[in-house]
Design goal:
binds adenosine-2'-5'-diphosphate; eight-stranded parallel β-sheet; globular
């Protein structure tokens, strides 16, 4: 059970993950160096779990911040839990190690703590383009069996480039396909999915718990409110009157209430913030039991469709 930001949640392979991490996906509005400063501030505030990805395009900055905080004695490498993700253009088994090595080169680190298959679908292999498209702008897909990708990720764990391996954006059927692989060596330790009270993933959470797979929730504050993926007529989660009322009762912000809700139901969270005050606030969310109240919030049809995200 996670009670505070520093509690660690055990993983199926014997490792463990800190219950609250700092998301590092950054908007285009940030200028070079902002991510370095934000991650350094996050580590100073106490974050030991940092959630990144090759696709975010900023692992060089995240690595620079981690190395700076190791160099100044704030942390040791083993204190930091860094997650990276295998992008969709690298799902062919022969590309997997290449992608991980690219991440390690950007970070200038020897290993990552957790490596996730970012999505279960493959795009045309490419080391240059994140979203390869044809001349008409149509996204180019590839036909890769993600179980074969998984086997290549298992090899990366065996050679010590990564401590734990997991998946992201998998539904329960896709998870079962991996779990039923005839030569499976390692189960996915986690499944990272969008998770917050308007998309509480209760069925998937139950399934993951039954298989000892940790559910890691991204966008736990209900953002980004990008019209590309979201029906923006849905009210912002943090303005929900139930959350506001609960927050007032316990002298906490709505953000702290939703993060506490996840921690109590055993979901590891990776809220994003580039503001030190809010980063600090997000780690300080201890509150009396709130989950039974929040499970009654409506579950909105949140994302429009995967096609609209990648189309
Ligand atoms: P900022 O970086 O200015 O703090 P999510 O992790 O659900 O995707 O949410 C990320 C967004 O939520 C970012 O825009 C971030 O902005 C904002 N945010 C982070 N922490 C808080 C908080 N405690 N209260 C309100 N907004 C927050």
């Amino acid at each position: 059970m996670i009670y505070s930001a520093d509690d660690r949640c055990p993983l199926d392979d014997g490792n463990s993950i800190p219950g609250i991490g700092l998301g590092t996906f950054s908007s285009d509005k940030l200028v070079k160096g902002d991510v370095v400063e934000a991650v350094k501030a996050g580590i100073e505030i106490g974050y030991r779990h940092l959630d990144g990805a090759l696709m975010y395009g900023n692992e060089d900055e995240v690595g620079e911040a981690i190395r700076a905080k190791i160099a100044d004695g704030t942390v040791k490498r083993e204190d930091i839990f860094y997650t990276s993700k295998l992008w969709m253009t690298y799902l062919s088994p022969n590309m997997v190690r290449k992608a991980l090595e690219k991440t390690l080169k950007s970070l200038q680190l020897d290993y990552v703590d957790l490596y996730l298959m970012h999505w279960p679908m493959a795009l045309k292999p490419s080391e240059e383009e994140i979203f390869p498209r044809d001349a008409n702008g149509k996204l180019l897909l590839d036909d890769v069996d993600f179980c074969e990708t998984w086997a290549a990720m298992e090899c990366c764990k065996e050679v010590g480039l990564v401590r734990s391996i997991g998946v992201s954006n998998f539904n329960h059927r896709q998870l079962e396909m991996v779990l039923k692989m005839p030569n499976l060596k390692y189960k996915p330790v986690c499944n990272q999915v969008e998770c917050h009270p308007y998309l509480n993933q209760s069925k998937l959470l139950k399934f993951c718990k039954s298989k000892n797979i940790v559910l890691v929730g991204y966008s736990p504050l209900g953002t980004p409110r990008n019209p590309k993926y979201l029906n923006t007529s849905i009210p912002p989660l943090l303005n929900d009157p139930v959350l506001k009322k609960l927050g007032e009762k316990h002298h906490k912000t709505a953000a702290q209430v939703v993060l506490r809700y996840q921690v109590q139901r055993g979901v590891v969270v990776v809220p994003k913030s580039f503001n030190p005050g809010r980063m600090k606030q997000n780690r300080e969310q201890t509150l009396p039991h709130a989950s039974s109240t929040l499970d009654i919030l409506p579950v909105w049809v949140w994302t429009v469709s995967v096609g609209s995200i990648f189309g």
